[in-house]
Structures
1.
Amino acid sequence: MSEKVALVTGGIGGIGTQVCKRLYAQGRRVVAGYLPDEEAAAIEWQRVRRQEQLDVAIVPGDVSSFESSTEMVREVQERLGPVEILVNCAGITCDRTLGKMEKTQWEAVLSTNLDSVFNVTRQVLNGMIEQGFGRIVSISSVNGQKGQFGQTNYSAAKAGVHGFTMALAQEVAAKGITVNSVSPGYVETNMTLAIPGELRDAIVAQIPMGRMAQPDEVADAVAFLSADETRYITGANLPVNGGLYMC
Ligand code: CAA
């Protein structure tokens, strides 16, 4: 496969790390985006990748901010060239029932999980159109498909990612660009570790496969959708949820 530049937002996180590894194995020039506040963690992350013989670049950027996303993509383009593969992977949870949810909790989740998809995709799209090639894969969630108690903010944002994906897919279908989403179920990462113990057990009990996903199982789906030869799938949502939700 050609050495195309792949930007993975949330690249140093649980799923993001495995996505970076899989895209690197596909021969991509991978750059992992990280929150500027997490610079020390990002440098350490890159050191570990180098020990694993993976030469992955890192770039700071707060994807909830349009200006910061502009700066992040500008830096990637200066250092590596135009972004041809974008994986929108940065995301947070802030679970609370709606009756107790603060506006700040709503806004934090919507801006990090949904505005971010606009903020970053907007920066790379016209370049992809000029090149006549692009792969955009956004990480959504099973909870954007079925809703989840305590997650009005997260479920709304992740459902929004589906809408964005289907609309943009139509806009660029004839330009060599595919736009898809992957909807993981519950994945073994720090995000799901934050769910209180008994609740986590109750959730796992509902998963037909009887276990959470490993991050690399989600990365496999991203690698598939972003591959050069996966050129006729667009506007799709690929669930990776162990059978938790089927539609
Ligand atoms: N269905 C029905 N009732 C539920 C429930 C459920 N799924 N979960 C909790 N409840 C009940 C509680 O037992 C409690 O009942 P009582 O009032 O009778 O005691 C009530 O609903 C919740 O009241 P709280 O005051 O505790 O509510 P809260 O606003 O503090 O929020 C919560 C609780 C933080 C939402 C907690 O329920 C929780 O953490 N739930 C897990 C949410 C979840 O699944 N998050 C997924 C994170 S991972 C992820 O999002 C990744 C991905 O993409 C899949």
Note: The two ends are 33 Å apart (CA to CA).
2.
Amino acid sequence: MMTEDLKEELVRLRRDIHMHPELGFQEHRTAGLVEGYLRELGIRTWRIGATGVVGEIDNGGERRIALRADMDALPIQEENPVPYASRNPGVMHACGHDAHTAMLLVAAKVLSGMEFEGKLRFIFQPAEEGLNGALEMIKGGALEGVDAIVGLHVWSQLPTGTFAIGDGPVMAAVDRFRISVRGNGGHGASPHETRDPVVCASHIVMALQTIVARNVDPLKSAVVTVGRISGGTAFNVIPDVVEMEGTVRTFEDEVHELVERRVKEIAGEVSSGLGCRAEVEYEHLNRATVNDPRLATIAREVASKIGRVTEEQRNMGGEDFSEYARLVPGVFAFLGVRNEEKGIVHPHHSPRFDVDEEALPLGVQFEVSMALRLLEEGF
Ligand code: NI
């Protein structure tokens, strides 16, 4: 399926996109490249928003299967000493979305030269990183008529040649909370004349850790992290207010609801117990990415003909593929791109992140085989 020429083209595409990274909703060059490539193959394309691109091969038939790639980069200065390093200062493909885009383009090329019955839709979405580009694509009709959707993410924790495909939730629901603790400031030498929000906020940080330790079922997963805390201006002044921000990660709805409720209760009740007042803002950023078990089984079968397969790869990161998989059956697979010998070991979102390009043809094979298999057999 993958000739040497095609493998070279795949690497060339990936490096081209890698050298020209663009942030979410600004993927103008990348979207143009995607559109031009698909059109050259004779694939009909259309835009959603300024930078979303959809392509479709329509060979009649009942079924329509979608494959999805994301195209955006991150606000990171690349530190890799490679000839294809980012030429865009402060912007880098540090999550592998360059690889996702290149793999799906080449998969479209392979599929466009094959005979099959059915419709294949290629979704190239903008702004996966924190901006929920998937929602824009869905609002623009990207999922209309789609029976199932397949997503693939390169993964730095897994060695090249390994696929990880789990059942059920594989990436977490992501929430953000902000807590403002209000007291009454005053002189650091006269705490009895104040209501100290620093002490109160400290108790809240500690008490929030009891949610995972004491409230969530030990057999379930959750994370509560306070990532930012700020308050005060001088060593001898008790401030009026302390602010903190943090994130909650969960897989299941019931755990999600429990943790949200406890964050609010703890912030409110610890504060009132200590004479302060808490204001809590709580936002849901991503839903959990949940694999359809039937599709995941098929995906594992398909992947086992290409490489090694494990089910063990769930992580607490967020992914807006969740928005598609909520509406139609979906499967989100991880493709290993780690290679210790080549020094390709750095985690996602690191300025040294890179992918082992030997893995890319395996990803293309997976996408092509999944598309054909789902069109032929349904699920
Ligand atoms: Ni990513």
Note: The radius of gyration is 24 Å.
